[in-house]
Amino acid sequence: MLYRRVLFDKISGFWMVTTLVTILLLPMIIGTGLYIKALPLFEHQSVTSLASSSIWAPNSGKFGFWPFIAGSLYVTVLSFLFAAPICLLSAIYLTQFSSTKLIQVMHPVIDVLAGLPSVIYGVWGILIVVPFTSKIAAPFFNATSSGYSIFAGGLVLAIMCIPYMLNMLIEVFNTVPVGLKEASLSLGATFWESIKHVVIRKSYPGIISAFGLGIAKAFGETIAVMMVVGNQVRITRNPFDSGYPLPALIANNYGEMLSIPMYDSALMFAALLLLVIIMAINFIFRLFIYKTREQ
Amino acid sequence: MNSYQTLNNLVLENNVQIPEPESILTVKNLNVYVHQHHILKDINLTIPKNKITVLLGPSGCGKTTLLKCMNKLTDLHKELKVTGNIFIEGDDILHTQTYLPELRQKMGLLSQRPFPLPMSIYKNVAYGLKLKGIRDKKLIDYSVEKNLSEVGLWNEVKDRLHSPATSLSIGQQQRLCLARGLAVKPRIILADEPTSALDPISSKIIENLFKDLKKHYTIILVTHVLRQAVRIADHVVFMYNGEIIEQGSPNELFKNPKTQKLKEYLTDGN
Amino acid sequence: MNRRKIIEERLFKLLAGIATYSLIAILAFIILVIFVKGFNALTFDMIIKTPKGGFYYGGEGGVLNAIIGSLYIAFGATLIAAIIGIPAALYINVHLIKKKRTQNTIRFLLDALWGIPSIVYGAFGFTLMLFLGMNASLLAGIITVALLITPIMVRTFDEVLSTIPIGLHEATLALGSTKTEMALKVLFKQGFSGFITAILLAFGRGIGDAASVLFTAGYTDLIPVNLDEPAATLPLAIFFQLGSPIPEVRERAFASATILTFIILAISLGARFLSKQYSKSNLK
Question: Is the whole-model pTM more than 0.95?
Fold first, then answer.
């Protein structure tokens, strides 16, 4: 009887390790797979030239990824600018000013917002955000726009990232001990001054990492952005023009992938780029939290 | 009931305000509720000036809550319902029309654990002054040095005033918190078991500081350590289960306890 | 100066309140728009029938193909993710309980893994598919989605398991059980709410994600009968049919959106509710 138990223990222990190791190796495996697929691309061009070139003409074998990287950057930065202030303000309100009832309502709201699939945000984006952009936002800035634009993409992305950042910020603000706020108040600060000088200041590392995670998520979002961003290859400063972020490139062209030579390698390279950039962002920000927590 | 208390009651019954020369903080009919629990019951208390008043009692008797009511920190805990009056030099802090942060500055707070603000040592001490709008660097430098010296910390930190306050040891941090509280020139110091997280030597330093400080400040100290009360108290208020059971000088209470509860507490504590 | 401080505080409190309430409003708005659009389209036929005459141009029929396809993929992927992910999470909390640094490193890597976008999984799944000689099929879709949702499963379960006090581990082992027995009988029960949440969240992700099935599951009007056939999914049903010139086809897209949103709502709210239920009844 004991022998059987021990045997079972050993086998399941082995299985547990195997699964864990496999999971941890996943990014390596994915990265390697994509890299192998992308290899043909490197015969004629180096990685840096591919990433920095702006000429995208697959039929002539020219693959310059810069417009897509730039498009991704633009839409990500825009979404961050929309989302960050709202998240910060809301997190402050929920943790410092509001009643517990509101927090209880907010939690399911955040859960649902976080759980809504990308495609649903896309549908809403097409129905609401695109017309909003073309009829209200663009004219406000004296621009014309079809609505399918980087601006629309940024707006939709912002709403998608807010629940994740908000959750983290709430957690971060809640870990500030009450005693610190008491100390500040008893020194003659108003409630708001205590929030500024104590709560926010103490939470800097957490705030930065919450932002980092939001940025990483925004960079990789595919479907929702694709449905509202216009998908035209160009580099532009005007947010009311359409753009073409990196994930959208991959998703839009998988159909033609196999018919044009090296197109499939190009798209796999795009996926590899995406993987590397996002893991880098994630890595840097998580390292930052890790280091500052040790303090 | 002495003549002063008789006069006090007469005054309140007739709603007349007479400046009270000897007491600096008076608690009147204070009741505190948490949800349905009545945790402070009908507290009436007069704190004598320039003395160390110790709020003594077993854990959970409400002494910390009472302390936190005094500078209305109960605002941070929304589940608390507070009724009654607390007069700080005549001004009822629970219903005041004047600017609350200024009224709070009349009392300095020292907590159970030191809570250095997330900034440098210098900025911690300067915090209260900057809040008041004081910008003169010389004035601030002077205040920082003066207050750090008063708690005996100046020599230890003068070379690293701009390093983070968290780099100090716990005993030093607690003294820093005291220095920072003194910098806003309070009249009263509220201390909530200030030595409970400290080693015996640091505790002794804080206790001796209090003995010095009482010349210029009124000190209200919460503790559940009988020996500490014996060592430094001028006036003792014994609490149990949300009520004041007995109060008086240490001699009266410790040598001749009148109530059963106090007698039990003294025998258990020793 | 004090007046200025009071005004500043009131202003920020107002802005912060507006930010918070507008988030609630936005969610309500999104759900409202989707439901209103889909309400008219959501007939009984929609749910029961598959599309007739080609999903892009044929105006008749419903989205049963997508509903069943999505359910197949979500269930299959969740099953695989559970078989792989649950033991991994248990391992972190059982065998590595003494090695705090290893635990932290692993959690750090897991968090990074969690951030990989689904399109990358989709692209990789596609590569794998070609490599193994598979067609766009139910199986390929299941495998890809399983890869996507496994980190979610591990992370969610692990988060709950890590809150179990180490004293419980020690007490159990001291009574003579093996590590596996402790994992299965004690930790699993104690962390049951985490298990439920993990399954639900992973399932929700699996059913709603489009980018991972885009290349790998294919699309069809039919309900797949075996693993080798392509499968339609709700997200792709929306994505492909939304742009159709035929209004009835677009209606199908909105109906799918409503169904999908409804499923996600049920899962998200259910997960939170269940996790509260189970954590209350646990011994602490």
Answer: no
